[in-house]
Amino acid sequence: MTPLSRRTFATAALAAVLVGCGGPQAHQSAAAGSGSTPPPSSTSANAAHALRRSTPVRLRIPAIGVDTPVIRLGLAPDGSVQVPPITAHDRAGWYGHSPTPGQVGPSVILGHVTVGSYGDGVFRHLAQLHQGDRITARLENGTKAAFTVSAVRTVAKADFPADDVYGDVDRPELRLITCAGPRTGDGYRDNVIVFATLSSTSP
Questions:
Q1: How many CB atoms lie within 10 A of CB 16?
Q2: Compositional bias of type Low complexity: which residue ranges (predicted)?
Q3: 30, 54, 75, 154: which has the fewest Cβ within 10 Å?
């Protein structure tokens, strides 16, 4: 599928992160992040070579014990990006109109912090990541794209930094997004955003 234009992609993706993470019985994650970390630089120095487009099928984040299948997300009827379904076997979801992990640009993967009555979501400890931690995406073509965390930010959804998250970059980058903070109605007040840069690839 052809990626959306940058402006359309940013608008739709922003709508996605403003929805709730988890059902009405979801509880708050104990993970806490910092909102003071600056966004990563867009310089291409020392970055690994970009990959061809190939759908991600698995995501591993050893530092927080994540090893999850990745499903493809599209657009909901209202034009916002879908979020992963609320199920007992929670999985992360890649937004299919964004670059695939390893392509030039920001590849976006969403995950829940909680999944209603099922308890914790796959990204429940996302805010505990630190600069230098490793994230690996396995692609449909068998390639592995390894990323290094450059920043972790917790922001109010009302002040979501769309330009930092979805703006043009000249190298392959990754964005992991979940909810955080106190519950407000059916959702959460904040978002945790992990910024990471491609550091290596392997067959």
A1: 19
A2: 26-48
A3: 30
